[in-house]
Amino acid sequence: MSNTRECLQLLQLVTNAELKESPVYVPMHPFEELNEQEVKHIDSGLSPSEQVQQAINCLPLPSEKIVNGLKPSFRRWTIMDYYKAYSSGEITPCMVAEQLVTAIRESSSPPMDMAFFINYDAEDILRQAKESTRRYGRGEPISALDGVPIAIKDEIDCSPYPTTGGTKWLHKFRSCKGDACCVMRLKSCGAVIIGKTNMHELGAGTSGINPHYGATRNPYNPGMISGGSSSGSAAVVAAGLCPVALGVDGGGSVRMPAALCGVVGFKPTFGRVPHSGVLPLNWTVGMVGVLAGTIEDAFIVYAAINGPLPSHETSAIPLPKVYFPLLQSTNSVSNVILARYGEWFSDCGDDIRTCCSQALHQLSEKFGWKTVDVTIPDIESMRLAHYLTIGSECTAALSSYLEKLDNAESGWDLRVALCVYGSFSGEEYIKAQKLRSRQMQFHRNIFTKADVIVTPTVGVTAYPIFDDALKTGELDYINGAALVRYQIAGNFLGLPAVSVPVGYDKNGLPIGLQFIGRPWSEPTLIHIAYAMQSLCVSKYRKPQVFYDLLKID
């Protein structure tokens, strides 16, 4: 319990802080025109499938056709690969679904026990695939997402499944009454929802080790963690079971596992994607995010799920305009300025520091983009203020359930987390929101000098899963702190952020580089991520656990 005492002692930094700023309770930024380069304005009122088509129109022409096979270097199948294969009749959604169900069963059983999913329904997967196959047979697919397998983190409502939040008890108190808005939009595009992915219990940790549903294992080395809390969503994409999955990012929970599993993790600006139908565990720091094999696929799914909030999610500020990046023109994006806080950037493992520094150098060499040095004050205080905020919101959201809960139903790590969360006071919560206000001012100033802030995504690569953690959950605050080190601004301040795979450590484990943008700057972030991906894609490696569902020569 010494880790808990240290955590509480550190939180005194927030408790004892003297702050003149007014508190900011919700990081909802007023929309402003950013005059971004190479973007296209998207009309409001388009359907999700129409927005998907708009995104596809922004993609570069493929350098090779699917029928010509893959280059020798490894790459995952993309949404457009599936769409072209289905449209040609070479493969059908039913054929993919049958292979997928077999792969899920195999990976979920001994000796693999990858623990990718909490719940999946083979009959429902095959039903959706049959409907999609009929649409392609008639020449009437709904969109490029029609028949494409997509997984959903078990923090997001998705019928016909319960929403467990990674627990053994939450779904008993809170029933799933329908689809979350983001899931509804994907289904309206014809996507085949393949199940609910595993997650760290209640999102209260960073390892992805769940004592109830198993530790989600990293496809690059099954003895290592996949990261959390959207562990299953990152791992299924890395393993080739689907090109895209949805996660929820309350404290790096999309970007961390994306980096550890060698995939893209994209978290939009707070308020860009409706939060309705998502467990209300962290309503001012959490955002639905996308995990994908490529930035193009993350963009396509972002196009499907973003848009005006449902009528019951009212906002006092005008709805933000939507712009999409013209990725066929990324090479024309010039004069990008990247902000780097050197001491913070270097606070990571040697392999990560070297790899991420080399990636930055490549961007400079290829595109002529510049890096400027900045300082971000009080980073540790911001991390603790975020922890206090997410913990307070979690206990407030679950208070009626926690009164009835038998602690024995939860893992040890969640029990400790809830104990710490319950110790926070209203005064401390308000001080944390004052710190949020201060940090928003700090970051606003940085964005007058630079387009994005660049950091490693995490401070360590994937570490081993120990047997004693499998039954109880894991309490590892040292590695946990290293994993969340670069995550907090995206959540606490509501900023968009993306993690892109840029290389591997000496053990072959993936490394990610993160770009954090100003509010509503998703097009610029996607441009930058696409540029970074283009420089690294030839070095991408095939994971130890990988399923080739299209099997096209």
Automatic annotation (TrEMBL):
Please name the InterPro entries in this protein's record: Amidase (IPR000120), Amidase_CS (IPR020556), Amidase_dom (IPR023631), AS_sf (IPR036928)
Q: Name one Pfam family in it.
A: Amidase
Q: Which residues cross the membrane?
A: none
Q: Where is the Amidase domain?
A: 120-525
Classification via SUPFAM superfamilies: Amidase signature (AS) enzymes (SSF75304)
* UniProt GO MF annotations: hydrolase activity, acting on carbon-nitrogen (but not peptide) bonds, in linear amides
Q: Record's family?
A: Belongs to the amidase family.
* Protein name in the entry: Amidase domain-containing protein
